[in-house]
Amino acid sequence: MMVNYKLKQYREEGVDVHIAGVMPPNKVGEFQVMLNVLPSVGDFGHQLRHIGKVLSFLFNEHSLKNARPLFARFFLSDVVNQQKEMLHVVGRVLSCPVSYIQQPPLDGSKIAVWIQMQTSVSPAEGFPDEFEHNGYVHSYFTSRPDVSVHPEASYVQTHILLREYENRLKQSGCTLAENCLRTWFFVRDIDCDYPGVVEARKAHFELRGLSPDTHFIASTGIQGGTVDNRTRVLMDGYAIKGLKAGQIRFLYASEYMSRTYDYGVTFERGVAIDFGDRRKVLISGTASIDRQGAVVHPGNVELQVLRMWSNVEALLKEADCSFDDMMQIIVYLRDIGDYRQVVKMFDSKFANVPRVIVLAPVCRPGWLVEMECIAVKAVDNPQFKDL
Questions:
Q1: Are the C-beta atoms of residues 293 and 263 closer than 8 Å to each other?
Q2: Structural domain boundaries of the chain?
Q3: 11, 86 Cβ separation under 8 angstroms
């Protein structure tokens, strides 16, 4: 049965609302939503109030009726001064895990929001970060190390975050290796602190049997901060319980990119998850890299964007998907001066895909731009349960 793709864009209360969704007849609908505030709305307080109003409207929006939020991320321009006020407003309208990240939107606003939503899903009893439907349990994790107890460098904080995540997964009968499909590591100073994240993750994965001979986890490692400047690393994660053998496939696009392990890091380029009625593809943070693991087109952001698109397209093709199946994009830029050129390119190629472009240096100085995305395609897999 074909999935009906619904793309919707409108402006409400000074906020541009972009929705991409799949709504198969008589089956589960899922949606990716991006909210981008118009800079002309005013100061942070005004922008936040407008976001709050739009969030209230959103859940009554016709195409989203009966859908509930599963996860949200707020991209903030000044998290130290903004998060407390954010918590007061957002807590009234979002009953799901929420991640707050210092990654300023580059359109001139102070807030942007990404929300994942799904119909026919219920909160798991006793676990507010889990949602159930049809035998699958979707789990979202947001964590920041307790720096009052652990003020150490990024290496130790990364170990702490991974142990905390494993303990949370264990409560639900899950493991990092079997159930976690996607992680995000936000590093306060990417050029200084990322090596510690890389080494800690590699050491932790080795202890859990995650290796080039088994698999790693799709991931993005990018600059991003939180309120306490002693926090060197933040982590978000996504896991699914209830998948069977054959439902998960990792993506490499080896004709375009090297394996990540070849240059010392441990994550997968992407992962495809097959359900009975659809395939969901999660593409990791992807930059302008070649088969030898080298930066392609150093210093030229336009050519880097083109190579990055080629790499992402190759990963999607490996999952039998294309750019037409994309439902969400996050773009990370190292240099604010590249914004006008990059946004013009994305406006031309992905005008209808919900997206946000933020200031967030990539893990290698030579990479000027990176993107991640989510794609969904209709499939017919009678051996698996529908989403």
A1: yes
A2: 1-120, 129-242, 277-387
A3: no
